[in-house]
Amino acid sequence: MLGTHFIELPVAMPPMLPGMVGVNNTQYFALYYQGSKATWSNGRAMATFSYYAVYAPLIEHITLAIHLESYNLGSDDELPEHAILCDTVRHKMYVGAYKEIDYFLLQQHPHEPSQLTAQEFEEAVKAVESMTLEQMQRLGMFEMFGNTNPQARLATAELVQWLDQQITEELIQQYIQLANRGNWTAIMALDTLKRRISEAKEHQQQLENN
């Protein structure tokens, strides 16, 4: 049963999100920031994924930014107090207390051992050994050196485009009202949206001139 204190976010889970962070074969997983890395966990396993290609574009997008403003998903200086819970079956996202979500995720595996078996360890080693440099780049494993992988950039664009389709006139008006009251998150989100619109217009103008 889903935690009673989890708040459903007003945007469906982007269908490409599990693949972008590297999650499979699990209904629920959590997203947060820990140890200077964007991190996912499902109660049994956890791993880092790309901050710039996935995490930041998701949580900073105008459809989500204001709804996550009051939650602490973790930072370089603080452990996460909250996390985003993703449901891959119902395609929903929730936000709630990190400890409660962590406990909830454990319930996905009530009859499974808490530690890796010898076979699972061997499979994990093989998975790392067989992973290509391109796959590692897509998961953000070399972001400290800059992620120039074209597939990762394309996946990010698809994520943002999908989120863009969830923008409504009502949402924009809500951001404008909050920005007029001095809300910094709303101001930054609107500024980012304005810059993206300007860049899109410039790009369209260049195409028309060529």
Molecular structure report:
With 210 residues, the protein is an alpha+beta fold. Helix content is 47%, strand content 14%. It has 9 helices and 6 strands; from the N terminus they run βαβββααββαααααα. Strands 1-6-5-2-3-4 form a 6-stranded antiparallel sheet. Helix 2 (51-59) packs parallel to helix 7 (150-164).
Order of the strands making up the biggest sheet: 1-6-5-2-3-4
Return the structural class.
alpha+beta
Low-confidence stretches: 139-146
Overall helicity: 40-55%
- Major sheet, described briefly? 6 strands, antiparallel
What is the mean pLDDT?
82
β content, as a range?
5-15%
Distance between the termini: 57 Å
Q: Rg, please?
A: 19 Å
Shape: globular
Record field, number of beta strands: 6
Which labels suit this protein?
six-stranded antiparallel sheet; 47% helix; globular; 210 residues; 6 strands; 9 helices; alpha+beta; single chain
Task: Summarize the model shown.
This protein is of the alpha+beta class and 210 residues long.
List the helices and strands and how they pair.
Elements: E1 7-8, H1 17-21, E2 28-34, E3 37-41, E4 46-49, H2 51-59, H3 65-68, E5 82-87, E6 92-97, H4 98-106, H5 118-130, H6 133-138, H7 150-164, H8 169-180, H9 184-209
Antiparallel strand pairs: 1-6, 2-3, 2-5, 3-4, 5-6
